[in-house]
Amino acid sequence: MSLHIWMGALEQGLLWGSMILGVYLTFRILNFPDLTVDGSFTLGAAVAARLILGGCDPWLATMAAVLAGAAAGLVTGLLHTQLKIDPLLSGILAMIALYSVNLRIMGTANLSLLRVDTIFTSVSGFTGLSASALALGGAVSLLVVIGLYFFLQTEVGLGVRATGDNPQMIRSLGVNTNTTKLIGLSLSNALVAVSGSLVGQYQSFADVGMGIGMIVVGLASVIIGEVLVRTPTIFRALVAALVGSIIYRAVIAGVLQLGMPATDLKLLTAAIVTVALAFPVFRARFRKIPLSRERSGQSA
Helices H, strands E: what count in the chain? Predict the structure, then answer.
């Protein structure tokens, strides 16, 4: 695989990195199957694009996208905690509603950001146009990893972790698990919206369908990272998710370079997830150890 493909995979993997970390937070830390991701990713791009085209500063537009993503996660959390709707169904309902919300925000199915200043335009003044995406994606991913690591060591963060591990136990200690779920879902979707706003500005357009399948991409990246990087600690688990994002993009780019039609990308993603999920089974059989021990070695 050429250096050009690896650089492109690194660039895209970092830009999508905060979305992967958001998925990791809900699925692995909070143990909540949140499908809001497909909608909140597009929401981040839609809010940022609409505000930028309206003359708003790109940095402020990106911050607004973060708040919009947090609000989307909060809605999912309220559906589950207050209306007692199943977690999976809560995410589906929010995702469906966000499709119409995103159309309302954009006013059309596609918004072009060509010949419009974005945050990449600002960064390119310091790093050069070709390195702006890599620099910005790397900086954002680093801040998110460090921020999540320290957050998960705080009292609130430990409450979020305990809610995913053993909600009955943490409730017996007086912690309101509804509150920790709301915090975790809001933070997760805020991170997803960050990625959506970055990707939208990077690609110079926001499309109402750009978030379709993001949850599968996120899970694939998380699983790949867990397979390739042993994750006994929170910090290594966060880094593993980011590494998985880069590896996933490299695999996609490499296969496309070999001539695979772009229409088969979803099939390829499904195959990657299947192989990653089955890997512990084959490794356990090869080493002749119990599967439960093999999988417990990958948990954070």
Answer: 14, 2
